[in-house]
């Protein structure tokens, strides 16, 4: 059966809610996050602030330097969560199967629109529905959303980001390879900083170069090679994840060559901690356990973890605890093939906890 997948992504969600609720902020460079005088992190930036190079997860000190006239606003996580519930309730009226990825984005399976037609006929039939969803979000919530329409999650997410803000992009099956070709390899799901650098060193900068790569990508990126090739061709069979409970959040990197270089490992661990912390904040969660995963050149794998009494959610703390585990257990005693970082023991975070994580 053909699939029709929407990816709905709210535009600059936190900042847009602040601009809607506080008219004096409309048209101004709004930066939602901690104080620029502390060790804060940017949660979100309005499009007016993004013109100055401000983006989420950036230190607020940097944001203040780039955008000296930026208006810093303390996050109101409960308001964003309440708004998210209203938007998801609105979407559910359209009969979609919904995977809510975070407070401001969701995948919608609208495959019920298919009725023996070709894949592209199904996708084109979905456009009026996507337009109606955007219209209702704008009219009923006074916010804008961008929607990507495609046959799978990979393409739908790329499409939703293509014409932001307030965009609607369809990627037909017949055009997917051409659409992907000029994009940077980093645009592919699962390609992080380390993998991106590995591919660049091999002279692969665009997805077109991945599509045309004559060799076996496993020689560059290990077991991810086969999946990477499928993604480069626009093929993705991942189903929607409909489970309600998030039990863990993790990130891992397989190195192109086994390494015990401390600088590479620290940079990798820091990027993973930043990614995990951003997901915790978006989902309004905190964790009590940090764990590291290592795989050596002989494919032997070790997992170590540490649990604390007070829940944590900041990238700095997650990174520091990961470093502690590696040092305490003396795990980097030979080159690593893979390094992973994760958190478990998740629970809902209070407003105070989330705010402290951002300061």
Q: What would you note in describing this structure?
A:
With 359 residues, this protein is α+β, with helices and mostly antiparallel strands. It has three domains: 1-174, Alpha-Beta Plaits (2-Layer Sandwich), CATH 3.30.70.270; 181-232, DNA polymerase, domain 1 (Orthogonal Bundle), CATH 1.10.150; 249-358, Dna Ligase, domain 1 (2-Layer Sandwich). 39% of the residues lie in helices and 23% in strands. The protein has 15 helices and 13 strands. The protein has helices at residues 13-21, 47-50, 60-66, 77-92, 119-125, 127-141, 153-160, 176-180, 193-201, 207-211, 218-221, 225-232, 262-282, 315-328, 351-358; strands spanning 5-10, 30-33, 42-45, 71-73, 97-102, 105-109, 145-150, 168-170, 249-259, 285-296, 301-312, 336-344, 347-348. The strands form three sheets. The chain has a five-stranded mixed sheet. Strands 9, 10, 11, 12 and 13 form a five-stranded antiparallel sheet that branches. Strands 3-2-4 form a three-stranded mixed sheet. The longest helix has 21 residues, at 262-282. The protein is globular and about 60 Å long. The protein starts with a strand and ends with a helix. Mean pLDDT is 88; it is low at 350-357.
């Amino acid at each position: 059966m053909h699939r029709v997948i929407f990816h709905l992504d709210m535009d600059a969600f936190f900042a847009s809610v602040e601009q809607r609720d506080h008219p004096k902020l409309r048209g101004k460079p709004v930066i939602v996050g901690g104080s620029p005088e502390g060790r804060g992190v940017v949660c979100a930036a309005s499009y007016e602030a993004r013109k100055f190079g401000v983006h989420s997860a950036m230190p607020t000190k940097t944001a203040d330097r780039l955008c000296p006239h930026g208006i810093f606003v303390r996050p109101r996580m409960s308001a964003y969560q309440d708004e998210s519930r209203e938007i998801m309730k609105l979407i559910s009226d359209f009969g979609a199967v919904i995977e809510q990825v975070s407070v401001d984005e969701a995948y919608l399976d609208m495959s019920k629109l298919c009725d023996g037609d070709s894949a592209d006929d199904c996708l084109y039939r979905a456009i009026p529905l996507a337009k109606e969803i955007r219209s209702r979000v704008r009219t009923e919530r006074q916010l804008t959303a961008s929607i990507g329409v495609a046959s799978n999650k990979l393409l739908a997410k790329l499409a939703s980001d293509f014409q932001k803000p307030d965009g609607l992009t369809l990627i037909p099956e017949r055009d997917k390879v051409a659409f992907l070709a000029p994009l940077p390899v980093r645009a592919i799901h699962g390609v992080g900083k380390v993998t991106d650098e590995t591919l660049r060193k091999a002279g692969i900068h665009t997805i077109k170069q991945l599509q045309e790569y004559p060799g076996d990508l496993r020689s560059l990126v290990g077991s991810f090679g086969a999946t990477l090739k499928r993604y480069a061709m626009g093929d993705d069979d991942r189903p929607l994840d409909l489970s309600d409970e998030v039990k863990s959040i993790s990130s891992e990197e397989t190195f192109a060559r086994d390494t015990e270089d401390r600088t590479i490992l620290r940079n990798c661990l820091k990027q993973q901690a930043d990614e995990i912390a951003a997901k915790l904040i978006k989902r309004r969660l905190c964790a009590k356990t940090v764990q590291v995963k290592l795989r050596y050149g002989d494919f032997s794998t070790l997992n170590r973890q540490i649990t604390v009494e007070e829940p944590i959610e900041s990238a700095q703390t997650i990174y520091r605890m990961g470093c502690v585990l590696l040092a305490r257990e003396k795990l980097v005693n030979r080159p690593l093939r893979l390094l992973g970082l994760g958190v478990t023991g998740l629970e809902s975070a209070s407003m105070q906890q989330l705010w402290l994580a951002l300061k």
